[in-house]
Amino acid sequence: MTSNRPARALIFDMDGTIVDNMRFHDDAWESWHVSNALPFDRGTFAARTAGMAGNEIIASYFPQATVAELDAMSDAKEALYREAYLPHVAATPGFLELIARAEAAGVPMAVGTAAPPANIEVVLDTLGLRQRFATIVSPSQGFRGKPHPDMFLAAAERMKVDPADCIVFEDAPLGVEAARRAGMRAVALLTMLGPEGFAGYDNLIASAGDFTALDGLPALRFA
């Protein structure tokens, strides 16, 4: 995997990547755990679960629950998150500049996120970004959550770009692993974890606190 080859397509995770919002998710998950009399380790929860669909996370606690019950519990948690985060929606520094450069170079872009449609609306529509992406892929369309590579492979297929020519931007180890399984290079946004959280991934070509630190990355010098 040649790390310096210019990307022909970009795929962005949403939560913790396009926007720095994971603390709001943590708050909502903590409230959900408390209401269900479940222990909650704030220090490790997001790193273990970020990128999974909400009903996948909840199924680990309630393996006998029906799909409808899992969806209802997930919806309750997501409603808590949306109410808290909506007044604070803002793009991660440098993100708008990066996608503007990609657009100017004719490089297509996609979003691959575990978020449900209502959460996608809160971010992409509040920021007016939806039309700037060639496609948006999520588990609501029938795909498995990360670390499965399904969403990223679907994004590449829809953009008609070879997976090896895509770069994925992620804030979670499960997302970087999903990119690895898809045969894609990845960049880690350190909005949730430090660099040590991404040790050992041979597809990782860079890590940065936000997008402003990626201006000199050779793979993002679009030809």
Topology, please?
Elements: E1 9-12, H1 22-35, H2 42-49, H3 54-59, H4 67-85, H5 95-104, E2 109-112, H6 117-125, E3 135-137, H7 150-159, E4 166-170, H8 173-181, E5 185-189, E6 204-208
Helix pairs in contact: 1-4
Characterization of the model:
The protein has 223 residues and is α/β, with parallel strands linked by helices. The chain has two domains: 9-21 and 89-220, HAD superfamily/HAD-like (Rossmann fold, 3-Layer(aba) Sandwich), CATH 3.40.50.1000; 22-87, DNA polymerase, domain 1. It has helices spanning 22-35, 42-49, 54-59, 67-85, 95-104, 117-125, 150-159, 173-181; strands at residues 9-12, 109-112, 135-137, 166-170, 185-189, 204-208. It has a six-stranded parallel sheet. Helix 6 (117-125) links the parallel strand 2 and strand 3 (135-137). The protein is globular.
